[in-house]
Design goal:
mainly alpha
């Protein structure tokens, strides 16, 4: 006996929002939109901070701190530039 419509599991598109197309800008956190209370709540709900991303932000902030403290002169040192 074939399953009836009510016994079928739901389709993924019925459970989550799946966009018909995406662009690279869909993956960019626009900081100007995340500075309000509502914007920051949406950003936290929409984005997942992975361990790798956390490490990259930590490294970037360390570079900025070193530059502000005067430990890096003449721009970004080649040792800080890494493509992942």
């Amino acid at each position: 006996m074939p399953p009836t419509a009510s016994s079928q599991p739901p389709l993924l598109r019925d459970v989550i929002d799946i966009k018909p197309s995406i662009s690279t800008s869909d993956f960019v956190l626009k900081l100007a939109e995340a500075v309000t209370e509502e914007g920051s709540a949406k950003a936290l709900g929409d984005y997942v901070v992975t361990e790798r991303l956390l490490e990259n932000f930590d490294e970037a902030l360390g570079l900025i701190k070193a530059a502000l403290d005067g430990h890096v002169q003449g721009g970004v040192s080649a040792r800080f530039v890494r493509f992942r």
